[in-house]
């Protein structure tokens, strides 16, 4: 079975194509969203999902979240004394989703379609692919998140060329895509975005408002306090999506500090972030050559689009209400499942094909001589331009800069900047050329496929020689089997204990957050539940779990009174 997976910054979700439609798959706790969080316990057991996220405030040094923002980087994340690459952490989340899908569907999951932000560069896409492989999944396809969202909204059923704008504001990334269908082919005409803008930045706005109201320090030295304050800001932000004001409350220096934050205050302070939403929308429309009033549908995805401020902004930008028929956190996984159905060649979707676009320009660095005869090096010569429909193959001719030059050396870059230093270096190339008295012609062909793998062919017509290279991360790809074995040997919390561990984590967080009577209640609940767990009676445990969860709900909700 092939599943569709939305590997999100904050939450992930898995879905499958079943009985002619895309369906979400619940995790061990019966929930459709699994937090993209990993935590390690003192006895080196790995927790993933809710059980891990609940420990973020109480065990920040043992818990990792938002690691999707680091995908593609080789800088390890330390969880206590264990080193993980961001892709290792993602692979643990994927492994949990795989296991949940296998339990729910009663079939082995062999492959997956995984979604990535349209703005992910090659390195980030390759890291995502490796995360899948490390989790024991054959990654059939990486699909851009907005493409998946458009599929979930049934764009494949549209008959005419009807542009469709997908506005995706997640936890850490913002993507705008213009998607359309023509002749049964779904095509992303343009995409733009900001991979440094997301719901978390709006949480920071709340945090800053609370800081100045409560005179809290600008930076919390205590990691626990920082995590607690962040969690409080997140709750306040969500409450502001439902009402006109909400209480921010945090325990600091042994006292509970609370302040009221109104929607008006939040809207005012978030204005610079709202302003940043505009440029990618305009760029996508100009790259795709589509006007706002020609858009047939505006689709909102990503948890942060639930903020009324964001919805009002979109409505104002386009002069009409966006389509919010699907839960904004479910659309991408559902679309990935539609694509998984395509991969499995399900008859009911066989007619639909999909194309994608190149998210960034790809090219090489060249030297140019300016009007004064001075040589300028490190200039970017794009070969495949951004938003070119994939798969694409483009050829460009270059010449060596000096007579008798024995070789050419250049870098392959991804980005938009004129000076290559500001772009991402993918690989350096060093190729011999036959020394000639005049300069030598060099033909460079870039071929880029839908899964983001780049093939570079360099031909020297004078010698007839061709050099081919495929861009992938050698360092990390080499030892993938070894790394898979290392990850597989980690002690993972058994699925049937996930709910109990999440409850313990939550009760511990309440114990740390509250004072006085509430803290006592949290302590009592912890003691009681740990006692029942020791008894190892599954029925008693299940009953206690429900009871303790209800009491924790009450404790947490009273926080706002
Ligand atoms: P995603 O990456 O799509 O899962 O988006 C998660 C982001 O959505 C996080 O920054 C959340 O804080 C934010 N989010 C989720 N629910 C809400 C809500 N009800 N109101 C405001 N923001 C929300």
Keywords for this structure?
alpha+beta; 15 helices; Substrate Binding Domain Of DNAk, Chain A, domain 1; Nucleotidyltransferase, domain 5; six-stranded mixed sheet; 561 residues; single chain
Protein architecture, described:
With 561 residues, the protein is of the alpha+beta class. The protein folds into 3 domains: 2-197 and 273-355, ATPase, nucleotide binding domain (Nucleotidyltransferase, domain 5, 2-Layer Sandwich), CATH 3.30.420; 358-478, Substrate Binding Domain Of DNAk, Chain A, domain 1 (Sandwich), CATH 2.60.34; 494-561. It contains 15 helices and 28 strands. The strands form 7 sheets. Strands 1, 2, 3, 4, 10 and 11 form a 6-stranded mixed β-sheet that branches. It starts with a strand and ends with a helix. Bound molecules: adenosine monophosphate. Residues 8-11, 170-171, 198-200, 203, 234, 237-238, 241, 302-304, 306-307, 329 line the site of adenosine monophosphate. The site of adenosine monophosphate has 20 residues, from helix 5 and helix 6.
